Amino acid sequence: MTTNEALVKYCLRIGDSSLILGQRMAEWCSKGPILEEDIALSNIGLDLFGQSRTMLTYAGELEGKGRTENDFAFKRLERDFYNNLLSEQPNGHFGDTVIRNMLHSAFYFHLYSALTKSTDSQISGFAVKSLKEVTYHLRHSAEWTVRLGDGTEESHDKVQESLNNIWEYTEDLFAMNEVDKVLISEDIAIDLNKIRPLWNDTINSIIERATLTRPEDGYMQKGSLNGMHSEALGHLLTELQFLPRAYPQDKW
Amino acid sequence: MNTTKDIIHTEKQIWDLLSEIPDPEIPVISITELGVLRKVNILNNKVTVSITPTYSGCPAMKTFEDDIKTKLKENSIFNFEVLTVLNPAWTTDWITDEAKEKLKKFGIAPPINGSEDKGILFGSTSKTVDCPLCNSKKTKLKSQFGSTACKALYQCEECLEPFDYFKCI
Q1: Are the beta carbons of B144 and A53 separated by less than 8 Å?
Q2: Of B150, B124, B111, B154, which is closest to residue B136 (Cα–Cα)?
Q3: Class of domain A3-213+221-246
Q4: Measured between CB atoms, which of B56, B122, B149 is closest to A142?
Q5: Three-class SS state of B124
Q6: Of A13, A22, A69, A196, which alpha carbon lies 20 to 30 A from A49's?
Q7: Would you kindly state where each structural domain of chain A is located, as residue ranges?
Q8: Does the beta carbon of A116 lie under 8 angstroms from any beta carbon of chain B?
Q9: Which position has the higher pLDDT, B123 or A5?
């Protein structure tokens, strides 16, 4: 695998995760529990779509086959998506969304911090920019995790259940393959084993402050690097891709 | 105003020309005051305009780009390119002092310089954002996310009005 091929896949991995979680945020639009949260979740979605556009566009440039961000977002099938399994999990209730976003943004906070030192200037520029945004996302979900976890008995039990239910999808964040091997050797990407302890520290401190209990690792789902997804992704894509598939010739 | 069709040919002249373009959401400030316009370069008669996004997903970026293209064409400049650069990343520190004053008059509390709004996890609430309407210091953060990606929502505890705060990044 050449560096270029590896970097295309790496960009898709990041771009797809932002796109899919962004779509989940968009699903909240007009359905937020309170107006401020409706706006907050939509705003987070907007940031994620912006990040995704940068990565998918760059992937297209590197690939050199003329594919655009729209081609990647709207014309690929489920098995060609590389987003992590966590990002595609359904919104559930507000607490489910908060817990998923907290685990997700804690990972990207540390990943982007590391990628600011990438030897690829597009990746490092993207990381500097995105880090500023994901910092707000992490703070938002961390504060809500504490409010709900350390809230009433009912809210505590609900988000503990959210955490227990989604835990099996967290390991997939740290999956690596040949792509990582190639890019790590050129200091373009970071070894995710170095991100793991940072992620652990961050989420442990949030979980503790929220008076929640970190679940034990049981069977952990994996497979996103090979395009193996949970059943949730297909349903999400039908909505995301409906318009351009129904009217393929139409332009924005 | 030029009454004759002078051909604008220096980088400074083009910069000044583009400085007339307002932010589509906050029309009291221009793209240069906001810090979105980064560079104007002329090489072999080709004009390259570099801009940087405030937030990755800011919908105004497309408008900025279109407005720049329109402005250049209106002034008979056709050989140009608009580039989006990500590095160095935009920061609220680039908003000029005059623009901050304009923001305040417009009803948006300007970003408070040099003070990051974001502790990594749990933000400190020590920062005082003055109410742009009654100048009271008794204000409260309602939400980190406001009417646009770049703003947070505050409320004044004295005049009770909600207002936008341009958050620091």
Answers
A1: no
A2: B154
A3: mainly alpha
A4: B122
A5: coil
A6: A196
A7: 3-213+221-246
A8: no
A9: A5
Are residues B68 and B26 part of one domain?
A: yes
Per-residue confidence band for B55, with pLDDT thresholds at 50, 70 and 90: confident
Contact B56/A53, CB-based, under 8 Å?
Answer: yes
Dihedral angle, C-alpha B116, B121, B126, B128, nearest 10 °? 50
Last residue of a domain, one of B84, B115, B137: B84
d(CA A177, CA A185): 13
Same domain (yes/no): B118, B146: yes
Q: Which residue of A has its CA nearest to B56?
A: A50
Any residues with CB less than 8 A from the CB of B4 and at least 6 apart, and which? none
Residue B50 lies in a domain: yes
Interface contact B93, partner A, CB < 8 A: no
CATH assignment of the domain containing B44? 3.30.300.130
Residues B20 and B58 in one domain: yes
Cα A105 versus chain centre, distance: 7
Residue B3, pLDDT above cutoff 60: no
Task: Answer yes or no: do A50 and B118 touch at CB < 8 A.
Answer: no
Closest A-chain CA to B143: A36
Residue B8 sits at the chain A interface (C-beta within 8 Å): no
Task: Give the number of domains in chain B.
Answer: 2
Residue B44 gets the label, from left (phi > 0), alpha (psi -120 to 50) or beta, of left
B109 is a domain residue? yes
User: Are the C-beta atoms of B117 and B123 separated by less than 8 Å?
Assistant: yes
Domain hosting residue B99, numbered range: 95-166
Q: Does residue B58 sit at the A interface (CB-CB below 8 Å)?
A: yes
Task: Give a yes or no: residue B2 inside a domain.
Answer: no
* CA A80 to chain centroid: 16
ipTM of the complex: 0.79
B107 and B159 share one domain: yes
pLDDT confidence tier of residue B119, bands split at 50, 70 and 90? low
Q: What is the pLDDT of residue A228?
A: 97
Q: What stretches in chain A show pLDDT beneath 70?
A: none
B3 touches chain A (CB under 8 A): no
Task: Indicate yes or no: CB of B89 within 8 angstroms of CB of A142.
Answer: no
Does the beta-carbon distance from B88 to A136 stay under 8 Å?
Answer: no
